[in-house]
Design brief:
Blueprint (H helix, E strand, L loop, with lengths): L9 H11 L7 H5 L8 E5 L2 E4 L4 E4 L2 H4 L8 H13 L12 H13 L4 E7 L2 H18 L7 E5 L8 H6 L16 E4 L4 H4 L6 H19 L4 E6 L15 H11 L3 E5 L14 H4 L5 E4 L11 E6 H9 L14 H16 L2 H18 L7 E7 L2 E6 L14 H12 L2 E2 L1 E3 L2 E4 L7 H21 L5
Helix pairs in contact: 4-13, 5-13, 9-10, 14-16, 15-16
The chain binds 3-[O-phosphonopyridoxyl]--amino-benzoic acid (PXG).
Length: 463
């Protein structure tokens, strides 16, 4: 019999994790086998994580694109503590509400793009995207056009992991074998110039062509059947795909022309990530509905929201009967109190302006310094979202085969050298906390270069 590992050690936690804990998006067989178990994160402060072995990691991903105000902020903990003592829970069903839920609704209406004045709460981005599907179908039912029920989204989109939100998503590996997408969910190409542009097609022309793929799909399904188009302003989990400037204005025109609702999924892009409160602002998107999560509480507690435009809200309010949808934790008072404290902190510290004026330009400049590396085919960033694309051939930007292998190698070097940088296919993606300072960006770039060198060495490529 192997002896039991001592409690409160890495070996103990790993053993429990392997025995009892099913983590998301995990290859359980490999985790149990060659990987030897999970990394155990025990503490965090500012932009740094500490694992159970005492190793410090610079968190280039802000958790999962969410810890906007950084780790260890007492203001958020105190807001939760106070609210738990005052009113830890009450629901918002059956004509009740709580002060934090209504005060947060007002605050969100103030900071959201013009015309988004109503809010429906959930606890995750997936829930808010499920809510959007039901809200949109309810809207068209009330308008007397129930056949307008189809949704258009894009390849590489990530909108969540529930059945409806994974149907909206455009990642085939999340759909195959699960009976997804559900009927009525369609996908077109993303505005991803690097992979989808034709030879000699510039970004501006490509942006228009990618938008027109949405129009072609609307015409193929029939405009009288298409309910809505959904898109992340910048596709995050799909690899930080930053659309050409021509893309969103054309999408806006197409949706208006065919009377198709426009949904902006700002789960990653919202709350200062792009140097604006919401990415709809710089991209010129006027959404009918906008989904929020992650940065709404900086990930300290689960909360999500759907912002509803006056156009949709007025129809909902004039409709007969109830909107038969909601969650036990819709408008959870503790989560809403934390969100209010989080937004107050972002305002007080001027984090949106700090990103726009100081750290985003600095990150862009420092990323550019990696462009000469033999593995790097392209660097790109917008606000504090960035990507470093690894390619086999710099001139033609040909990918390594099989795609994903080299990105994973690089990611593992990053972990071993104190940097969390995720790989999406062979793109290394970045989304650090908004409180990151310029010397920490230097540290991040230095570590990234070291890990690119180590990856090149594995591949016998001279640096
Ligand atoms: N929309 C977007 C744009 C997202 O990025 C969701 C919705 C769903 O949110 P919830 O809270 O249900 O997870 C997300 C989530 C990754 C990764 O590996 C990204 C997400 C979640 C998990 C992993 O990049 N994004």
């Amino acid at each position: 019999m192997p002896s039991e590992p001592i409690r409160n050690t890495t070996a103990h936690w790993r053993a429990l994790d392997l025995r009892h804990h099913l983590s998301p998006f995990t290859d359980y067989k490999t985790l149990k086998g060659s990987d030897g178990g999970s990394r155990i994160i025990t503490e965090a402060k500012g932009v740094y994580l500490t694992d159970s072995e005492g190793q410090t990691l610079l968190d280039g991903m802000a958790g999962l694109w969410c810890v906007n105000v950084g780790y260890g902020r007492p203001e958020l903990a105190e807001a939760a503590y106070r609210q738990m003592l005052e009113l830890p829970y009450y629901n918002t069903f059956f004509k009740t509400a709580t002060p934090p839920a209504v005060e947060l609704s007002e605050k969100l209406a103030q900071i959201a793009p013009e015309g988004l004045n109503r809010v429906f709460f959930g606890s995750s981005g997936s829930e808010s995207n499920d809510t959007v599907v039901r809200l949109v179908r309810r809207y068209w039912n009330l308008k007397g056009q129930p056949e307008k029920s189809h949704f258009i989204s894009r390849t590489h989109a990530y909108h969540g992991s529930t059945m409806a939100s994974a149907s909206l998503g455009g990642m085939p590996f999340m759909q195959e074998g699960f009976g997804l997408p559900l009927p009525g969910f369609h996908h077109v190409m993303p505005p991803y110039w690097l992979d989808f542009a034709q030879q000699a097609e510039g970004p501006a022309d490509f942006g228009l062509r990618a938008a027109r793929a949405v129009e072609e799909k609307i015409l193929e399904i029939g405009p009288d059947k298409v309910a809505a188009f959904i898109g992340e302003p910048i596709q995050g989990a799909g690899g930080v795909i930053i659309p050409p400037e021509t893309y969103w204005p054309e999408i806006q025109r197409i949706c208006e022309r065919h009377d198709v609702l426009l949904i902006a999924d700002e789960v990653i892009c919202g709350f200062g990530r792009t140097g604006h409160w919401f990415a709809s602002e710089p991209f010129g998107i006027r959404p009918d509905l906008m989904t929020l999560a992650k940065g709404i509480t900086s990930g300290y507690i689960p909360l999500s929201a759907v912002m509803v435009s006056d156009r949709v809200g007025e129809v909902l309010e004039a409709g007969e009967g109830e909107f038969a949808h909601g969650y036990t934790y819709s408008g959870h008072p503790v989560a809403c109190a934390v969100a209010l404290a989080n937004i107050a902190l972002i305002e007080r510290e001027g984090l949106v302006e700090k990103v726009r004026e100081e750290t985003a330009p600095y990150l862009a400049e420092r990323l550019e310094s990696l462009a000469d590396h033999p593995l790097v085919g392209q660097v790109r960033s917008f606000g504090l979202l960035g990507a470093i694309e690894l390619v086999e051939d710099k001139a033609s930007r040909k990918h390594f085969e099989p795609i994903g292998r080299v990105g994973t190698l690089c990611r593992d070097h990053c972990f071993a050298n104190g940097l969390v940088m995720r790989a999406v296919r062979d793109g290394m993606v970045l989304s650090p906390p908004l409180i990151i300072e310029t010397p920490q960006i230097d540290e991040l770039i230095d570590k990234a270069r070291l890990c690119l060198d180590l990856t090149a060495k594995d591949l016998d490529i001279a640096v």
